[in-house]
Structure formats: C-alpha cells, structure tokens
Amino acid sequence: MGSLVKKGTSSSLMTEFLEKCDGYAVVDGGFATELERHGADIKDPLWSAKCLITSPHLVTKVHLDYLESGSNIIITASYQATIQGFVAKGLSVGEAESLLRRSVELSCEAREIFYNRCNKGSWDFDHAGKASRRPVLVAASVGSYGAYLADGSEYSGVYGDSVSKESLKDFHRRRVQILAKSGADLIAFETIPNKLEAEAYVDLLEEEGIDIPAWFAFTSKDGVTVPSGESIIECAEVADSCKKLVAIGINCTAPRYISDLVVSLRQVTHKPIIVYPNSGEVYDGLNKKWIKSEEESEEDFVSYVSRWREEGASLFGGCCRTTPNTIKAITNVLSCESSAPTNLKFW
Ligand SMILES: C[S+](C)CC[C@H](N)C(=O)O
Ligand SMILES: N[C@@H](CCS)C(=O)O
Ligand SMILES: [Zn+2]
Question: What is the C-alpha separation between 111 and 256, in angstroms, rounded?
Fold first, then answer.
C-alpha cells in the first residue's frame, strides 16, 4: 500500500500533503548519525549507505523510530549510496542498482509496519473525533557529488576545474533515474553545496522527464552563502525556476543560521520552505568525527522552530546529530502551536 497522499501533479503533491498535515509537516532527523548512535560503524566511503549492505534491519529501526516520533516524511538511506561508490567496493552495477531500490523499499516497509501497528501515534483525530491516518511521504535521498568524495566536500562546495555541469549530470543520472522509479513519493536533493550542482539537478529533472517531484536543500556555513561562496539567493533562484520542485530549503546547517536563510529564501520563492538543520556541531570529514559546538544545544534548536514557521517555513526536521528526541520536541512545539488560540502566539 502506498502513502495516503493522492498522486496528482508535482505541484499538487506538496500542497495537498501540507493541507492534510494542517499546514506544516515534520521531517525526520539525522539518519546516518542515528545509525551510528545505535552502534553502526559508518566510517567508510559509503557512510550510511554501508548499512544497506551490512545492517538493513537497523535502517528499518531508525525509520520506525522517526515515524514513532512524529515524522510525516522519512528520508531514505541513499544519501551516499552511489553506483560509483558501490562499484568501488566490488559490487556489480546490477547489485548497486538493487541497493538503491532497496533503500526505498526499506522506507516503504517501515511506513507499512508503522501503519499496521495502528497505534495511537499513527492516527490523528479530526474535530469531529473521526480517525484519520497521519500522512507519511518517503523521500529518496540524493547526496551531492561532494558526499560521494567522502571527505566532507559537501561542506566546501569546491569540486575543482575538472568537474563541470555535464560531468555532474553524468555522475547523478542513473541514480536519479532509478530512484524516480523506485516507489518513492519524491526525491530529496540534500546538502547541496554550490550553484553548479543545483543547475545540474534541474537539467537532469527536466531532460530525464523525472515524473516524481523533488526538493532541493542547500547547506550554509554563514547564513548568507552556500559553501562555495555563492549566495543562497542565487541558488534559490535556480531552484525556483524548476517546476518539478515542490519545496526549497536548507539542511545540515547550524540552527543559528536558519532564520536569515529562510528570510532570504522567502524573497525569491513562493514554494514551500523546508528546514532541517544539524545539531550545530562541526564535521571533521577526514576523521569522520563531529566536534562539539559551544554555541548551540538541542534545546536552543527546538526553541527556534516557531520563529522559522513565522518567517515562512512549513516543513521542519533535523539533520546530522539530531535524534528522535529532537523530532518529538519539534512535533510537540508545532502541535501545541496549532492548537493554541491565534492570540496566544509564542513570539
Ligand atoms: C553530511 S557529511 C557529515 C556526510 C559524510 C561525508 N560525506 C563523509 O563521507 O564523510
Ligand atoms: N539524510 C542524510 C543527510 C546527511 S547530511 C542523513 O540524515 O544522514
Ligand atoms: Zn546532515
């Protein structure tokens, strides 16, 4: 059984979904880092995609934990799952393609288990007390070329002169084709570090006739630019021009920068805005370790959510080093706000 969201045009998918969710939706939290918290060793060029081979049961568990925490969107384990990366590990192209499909199947299976539990958490009640299931979408993750490089290059955005828009398109083409036909509801292009890669994705979506919608989530280290130094505004303009995108936003970025970024995005797009920041810690790509930040705590993060909503965001979640607890807290903030009388705003 698929999601409860009726398949319509790309643009209607998100509108109808957000309507069903009362105007805002909860995205899941850090996926790879949650696998790691449960003991997975992902210090590997495949990072979280290694678990598609070694521990698919853990992939399902983490999806279920996020569903139980209130997520309306779960993102697949395919962030660093590339055909090129799997082949470098000795797998055949066919096996690599199967693992990509498997990442989506695991998310769909988790959604199915969650629905079948029919527990309180999977049902919402309308004002008349009638039960309806919480809508859940499966978003197929596509990490950047920098993610495949496996050295934290998604936080530098510098790919060198040998990488062109055409080479990026060739790098991503087959994976995007497979994920588009995998049963996912949409594609999540995540942690985009430069304008060139955004342009390559737009071309691919259009030239390959990708028939499921997508979102773009950029990363930033200063609240103004993406890691390559290009402004978030010019990157968002590229995204806004693409009819197949049903949301534009920011992920894996310190929470303290999100507010300014949302305000900038709102200047150039009417599309729904998605934000799923990381914990504020800094990634050491060479040693694959997170370095604590003095400046932020999980509590601060959640206290920002109402403001991001006022500034125009409508999809909220977490990225690296956030956990199901973060998502529970976001769910609580948003549901309290929705049920509060409008004259009792928090800000
Ligand atoms: C978003 S970063 C933390 C992902 C991991 C990185 N591509 C690596 O392989 O180290
Ligand atoms: N969806 C990915 C993004 C990494 S930046 C994850 O949460 O692991
Ligand atoms: Zn992240």
Answer: 32
The total number of structural domains in the chain stands at 1
Could you report the per-residue pLDDT of 16-34, keeping only the tens digit for each? 999 999 899 999 999 999 9
Residue 3 lies in a domain: no
Which residue of 35, 44, 142, 288 sits with most ligand 1 atoms within 8 Å of its CB, as the best mutation to test the pocket? 288
For 41, 42, 50, 137, 148, the CA distances from 45, given in Å and listed in that order, are 11, 8, 8, 28, 7
Q: Which tens digits make up the pLDDT trace of 22-66?
A: 899 999 999 999 999 999 999 999 999 999 999 999 999 999 999
Q: Which two tokens mark 220?
A: 């930033």
Interval between CA 243 and ligand 1 midpoint (Å)? 29
Taking the CA of 327 as reference, the closest ligand is 2
CATH number at residue 131: 3.20.20.330
